[in-house]
Every structure is written in structure tokens, then in C-alpha cells.
Write a structure and sequence with these properties.
alpha+beta, 4-stranded antiparallel sheet, 18 helices
């Protein structure tokens, strides 16, 4: 019987198994569905229960490994967690085509995160702004005292900025967070210093929270693709035209930048970092000129080769959160072999540029559907009920027919099974 209420007193106090049993009873989930959710794979139910609230199971996402990458002279194997076909293959192919030019060259700024403190009810905001700037040393002392461990590792408060937004005064605390993503550190500092800021400004503190527009924590990458590796001038010019379209039109830019994030978010997720924070910062950064534009930039060099660059916020860390608590994220970091958040940021941004190149090249040549659907055909074959070796054979038939649909896959599967 299905009970039509979502009110379950004490639900959060139950174990994951008990919660699942209750949900199954109330939702009508059958025994197979319940058994499926009981299996939490390589993330123990107890660990999952400590990560979020009201846990009843886990969702496994495939992890692939991107190969062929050369990043600052090193050749890492890069785990990518994604459910979307062609993402990993695209990075591998893009990286292979620029190997003869040295691969990807990266750079980063300092790992500075921003905490914002909102002050309202300030009668003389511009006067208060200067008063707060004068209090820099007092602000530093309060902030650094909240996180002595960060201070011990070379991080801590670096500077203060004060902005006047209409009748509000907004204080920015600039904090070097070292190898952490930094949200907890900067939020704690904002909470600690807020009462003093309110007193000095004559106002009242309200919001005290980090900004995910981490524009002081940038990762940059550049790469060159020689004409003989990409198919000549016509392909180069097609890529440049596609880029120009994205840079001028927000409708195209949204999809263009989503392609960048296909690569970026896959590595961020695989390493247990915050995909939402990185994505929010990336899209806000793309609109920093007042118009939403391409995150990447594409040009031709003096020899006619294609060059690409990408600069974007990259607030990722190696300590805290799921990067330590999730066993799979730890193993992915082991595969990467990174020992600093800086190196991780460099790898991620290189993957983002590679992904964008692959998408632009597909659009400029065969079209995105042909390459994408060839890989997506396996998913469609699975949806149609194919098993084992049937998956590849049905997928191959779909690609040959040029029609990748579930109904056609079911037809091909029926033919295959009839023959056998």
C-alpha cells in the first residue's frame, strides 16, 4: 500500500537500511528495487550516512581514465566521473592531437578565496568604507585567530576590500586557503569578524558567507594544435568561426561552456570536489564583462596553427570534504598522483580546454551527433535490453543505420536473438 504523505517523524534517526525499508513500504518500491539500493557498491553505507542526511543508498557513476595528456611536461592519467557518452574519448583524442606541440601549459594564481560580510543600516556608507579599510590589521588578527592550522601551513588572511552597493556595505575578506577548497575556513572568519565590522561601520551584519565567484583563484591553460594534426586550414577556420559564434551569442555560449564543463566537472567529481561551486564560479566568470561569453579563446598563430586558451576560477582542494571521506575520490587522487591543490587545478583546466577543442572540431567537421551518437548507441542498446556481447553488436547496427533510437535498437536486438 502506498501512503500519500512525506511526513515521517524520526526518519533521520533511522539507519540507512531502516530508512530504505520505510521508503519502500511507503512508495511501493518492489523487492528488486529495494535490493538494488541496499548494495551501495564501494561506498559503505555508514560512510554515505555520515556525508549527507537521510541516506537510503548510493548512485554509482562510471569512472573513465583520460589518456594522452601532456601537462607541463608530465603525463598524468586522469580519472573522470561522468554519465555522458563521448566525454572521456573526446579528451583523449584532443590530447593526442596536440602532443607534438608539447601538450598543455598551465599557470595558476594564489589560492585566494573570498568571504563576504553584508552590512546594512549604515548611515554613511562611503565614510564607513574608509573606516573599515583602516582596520585591516585588526581584521587580520581576528581572521587568523580563527584558523591557526591554516596559518601554520602558510595560509590565512591576506587583504580586505570594501564595496558600497546602494545602501549596503559589503566587506570582502581575501584568504589564502592553501590546499583546501576553503569554504569552511573563510565562512568561519566571516562569522568571527562580523560583529567588529558592524561596530566599526555603525551598521548591522547580515549575510556572512563565501563567494563562489573565486576570481582570485584562477587556473589558466594554453595549447597549440598543428594544422596537420587537425585536418588543415578548413578545420581550423571552422573552429574559429564556431568560437566566434559562442563569444558573441549567449545562447551558443551556454552550450559551448557546458562542453568545457563536461571535462572540468568530471575530474572535479572524480576527486570528491564541489562540482556546484566550480560550475557556479565558471559561469559567473564567463559573464564578468557584463555579457555571457565563451570561457575559452581560440586564435591562429603566425604559422597558421590553432591556439586555444582557457582561464577560469578553480576552487578545488585536497583536504576536507569528500576528497578525504569518499574512498573512491581518494583512489582517484592516488591515480592522478597530485600532492597539491594547485597541481589538481592545472590538470582540471587542461582537461576543460581539451574537451572544448574536441567539441568545436566535431561541430566544424562531422557534426556533434555523428561522433556522440556512435558512443551513445551502447547506452541505447542497454536501454533496449541488450546484454553482454549483444550490446556492441546492437550498437554497431544502430550506427550503420544512422538512427540511434530505442525502438530501432529493440528491433535489431530481436533480429539478433532470432538468428542465435
Amino acid at each position: 500500500m502506498i501512503i500519500s504523505t512525506s511526513r515521517i517523524p524520526g526518519f533521520y534517526q533511522l539507519s540507512p537500511r531502516e530508512r530504505l525499508r520505510k521508503v519502500a513500504d511507503m512508495s511501493g518500491l518492489d523487492a528488486d528495487g529495494e535490493a538494488h539500493l541496499v548494495d551501495t557498491g564501494n561506498l559503505p553505507a555508514e560512510t554515505a550516512d555520515s556525508m549527507i542526511e537521510n541516506v537510503i543508498g548510493t548512485l554509482n557513476i562510471p569512472i573513465g581514465v583520460a589518456t594522452n595528456l601532456i601537462i607541463d611536461g608530465e603525463e598524468p592519467l586522469v580519472p573522470m566521473a561522468t554519465e555522458e557518452s563521448s566525454v572521456v574519448a573526446a579528451v583523449c583524442n584532443a590530447a593526442r592531437q596536440c602532443r607534438d606541440a608539447g601538450g598543455f601549459y598551465t599557470d595558476t594564481s594564489s589560492p585566494i578565496m573570498i568571504a563576504q560580510v553584508q552590512l546594512i543600516g549604515v548611515s554613511n556608507p562611503d565614510f564607513a568604507r574608509l573606516r573599515l579599510l583602516e582596520a585591516r590589521e585588526e581584521i587580520k588578527q581576528i581572521c587568523d585567530a580563527t584558523d591557526p592550522v591554516l596559518l601554520k601551513h602558510g595560509g590565512g588572511f591576506r587583504d580586505v576590500e570594501v564595496r558600497v552597493l546602494e545602501d549596503m556595505v559589503i566587506v570582502h575578506l581575501l584568504v589564502d586557503v592553501r590546499d583546501a577548497m576553503g569554504a569552511n575556513a573563510v565562512n568561519s572568519m566571516a562569522e568571527a569578524v562580523a560583529p567588529s565590522l558592524a561596530e566599526w561601520s555603525g551598521g548591522e551584519s547580515r549575510l556572512r558567507i563565501l563567494s563562489n565567484l573565486a576570481d582570485r583563484r584562477l587556473a589558466r591553460v594554453r595549447a597549440t594544435w598543428h594544422l596537420d594534426q587537425i585536418g588543415g586550414e578548413s578545420v581550423r577556420d571552422g573552429i574559429l568561426a564556431a568560437y566566434r559564434f559562442a563569444d558573441l551569442d549567449p545562447y551558443r555560449a551556454a552550450t559551448h561552456n557546458k562542453g568545457v564543463m563536461n571535462g572540468v566537472s568530471a575530474v572535479v567529481l572524480a576527486t570528491g570536489n564541489d562540482t556546484r561551486a566550480v560550475e557556479a564560479g565558471a559561469h559567473a566568470y564567463a559573464a564578468r564583462t557584463g555579457r555571457y561569453r565563451s570561457l575559452t579563446h581560440w586564435e591562429a598563430d603566425c604559422d597558421g596553427n590553432l591556439t586555444g586558451t582557457l582561464e577560469m576560477p578553480m576552487p578545488v582542494g585536497l583536504i576536507g570534504g569528500a576528497t578525504r571521506s569518499h574512498p573512491t575520490a581518494r583512489r582517484c587522487l592516488d591515480i592522478l598522483g597530485v600532492s597539491s591543490a594547485d597541481r589538481l587545478a592545472r590538470i582540471i583546466v587542461a582537461v576543460g580546454l581539451a574537451q572544448n577543442f574536441a567539441a568545436l572540431k566535431a561541430l566544424a567537421t562531422i557534426g556533434i551527433q555523428k561522433g556522440h551518437m556512435a558512443l551513445h548507441a551502447k547506452n541505447i542498446a542497454l536501454m533496449a535490453g541488450a546484454e553482454g556481447e549483444e550490446v556492441a553488436r546492437v550498437a554497431e547496427a544502430l550506427v550503420k543505420r544512422g538512427r540511434v533510437r530505442v525502438d530501432i535498437a529493440q528491433d535489431e536486438l530481436a533480429k539478433l536473438r532470432k538468428k542465435s
